[in-house]
Structure formats: C-alpha cells, structure tokens
C-alpha cells in the first residue's frame, strides 16, 4: 500500500523537492548561459569544463566531447577545445585506449569483446581499439583465463561438475574470452580440481 505524505505535515519533503528542483534549475540556467557564449569566451569556458574532467582521470575525446556538450556548448566548440588539448598532449585516444586495456586486463581480467564494448562506449575509434587489444599476448590471455577460472572454482564449494562448468563458462564469456580460450581454461581447471579432490 502506498502512503501519501502531506508536505505540510512533513516539511522535510518540501525542502528535498526544492533542493532537487533548484539543482535542475541551476543546471538549466548554466546550459543557457554557456550556449549564449561566443568566440573566445565560449572556448575558454568549455576548456575549463574539459580540464575539470581531466583533473579526476584521463579521458577519451569522446568522453570530453559529451561532457562539454552536456554543459550547453556546441559540438563545434567542443571539437575546437579538444583539438587544442590534443596539440599540447593532454588528450591522446591511442594512449588512453592502451592504458585502459592494460588496467582492465590486469585488474579484472577483461579482454576481447568485453573490452571492445567498453572502448566503444568511450567513443574510441576502431583503429585505436584494435591497436590497444593487440597488446594482449595470447599466452597471457590463456593464463589469465585459467587463473580466473581456478579462483572462481575454489569459491564455489561442493557443486556438481555440470554446475561448475556452466558458471565458469559464463564468467569467462562475460569477460570477453573467446570460446576456444574459455573451453581450454575451464576443462583444465575442472580436470585439475577433480584430480586434487581424488588425492585428498
């Protein structure tokens, strides 16, 4: 049952509503103000947006463009700002792609299709994506898949081989490993795990 709370009896609800609307109103006014800027003023204001984005972490040109446009600036202004940032080396999609692929692969074991999808969402070009993915060594990928599968199998407890197989295949597939790598890693882990249990 849904209860209706009267704002007169609950003044905190009205304060929350006003706070939310005021944030939205401020953002709308800011976008209008930015959209009205022209020439150097627009470039400088949009550049500040980009630099604030870069303060927290590296960004792709696609991410920066979206952030600048979201603040009310035109795509043309965003592109001009990004061009200038690229010229001074603050933005480099190829380097960004390589760093992201390295971090995702080493820290979470992502590869293949999963990385392609993430890189595309960040607005990276096909060429930058392919060059970055080429840095993952096939042997390293196979070893990573095995390590992930082994760690996952150890956390499952006493489940049937069929259940373990399904869960391991699903986990590695979601991380972007190819069917052949998945099959090899899972088969090896289950065989090693069964042998270890038999020896106990």
UniProtKB/TrEMBL annotation:
Q: Which UniProt keywords apply?
A: Cytoplasm
Record's superkingdom?
Bacteria
Span of domain RecX third three-helical: 139-186
Instruction: Please provide the Gene Ontology terms (biological process) for this protein.
Output: regulation of DNA repair
Q: Which InterPro entries match?
A: RecX_HTH_1st, RecX_HTH_2nd, RecX_HTH_3rd, Regulatory_RecX, WH-like_DNA-bd_sf
Residue intervals of the RecX first three-helical domain: 46-85
- State a GO cellular component annotated for this protein: cytoplasm
Q: Where this protein primarily resides, as one coarse class?
A: cytoplasm
Subcellular location(s) of the protein: Cytoplasm
Q: Which Gene3D superfamilies match?
A: Winged helix-like DNA-binding domain superfamily/Winged helix DNA-binding domain
Q: Which Pfam families match?
A: RecX_HTH1, RecX_HTH2, RecX_HTH3
Basic and acidic residues bias locations: 1-16
Q: Which protein are we looking at? A: Regulatory protein RecX
Q: Which gene encodes it?
A: recX
